[in-house]
């Protein structure tokens, strides 16, 4: 199925995804997307997990944000406590 969408890039370089496209790709707020550029073609893909090799801060933050809603409240609180504990340790070192 081929569909074409035309968008204007705004002054900040942003492009908004049309609702029809988001519906077809089943994209929702907070979903992770992957952009791939090859041979002057840009591909957009919804991903559920970040590739194992990508350990950038942006990729890890996106992964945690995507996983967080799937955890129980107790696990979310335990993770938050663990993060705060780590931050406090790093602050004490400085």
Notes on the protein architecture:
The radius of gyration is 18 Å and the shape is elongated. The longest helix has 21 residues, at 73-93. The chain has helices spanning 19-25, 57-67, 73-93, and strands spanning 32-38, 41-47. 41% of the residues lie in helices and 15% in strands. It contains three helices and two strands. The protein folds into two domains: 1-48, Pemi-like Protein 1, Chain: D (Ribbon); 56-94, no CATH class.
Brief sketch in words of this structure:
Helices cover 41% and strands 15% of the residues. By secondary structure, it is of the alpha+beta class.
Task: Write the SSE topology.
Elements: H1 19-25, E1 32-38, E2 41-47, H2 57-67, H3 73-93
Characteristics:
single chain, 94 residues, alpha+beta, Pemi-like Protein 1, Chain: D, 2 domains, two-stranded antiparallel sheet, 41% helix, 15% strand, elongated
């Amino acid at each position: 199925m081929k569909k074409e969408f035309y968008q204007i890039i705004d002054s900040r370089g942003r492009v908004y995804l049309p609702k029809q496209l988001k519906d077809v790709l089943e994209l929702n707020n907070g979903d992770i997307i992957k952009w791939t550029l090859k041979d002057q073609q840009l591909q957009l893909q919804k991903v559920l997990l970040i590739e194992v090799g990508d350990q950038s801060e942006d990729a890890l933050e996106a992964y945690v944000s995507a996983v967080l809603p799937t955890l129980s409240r107790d696990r979310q609180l335990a993770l938050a406590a663990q993060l705060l504990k780590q931050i406090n340790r790093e602050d004490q070192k400085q």
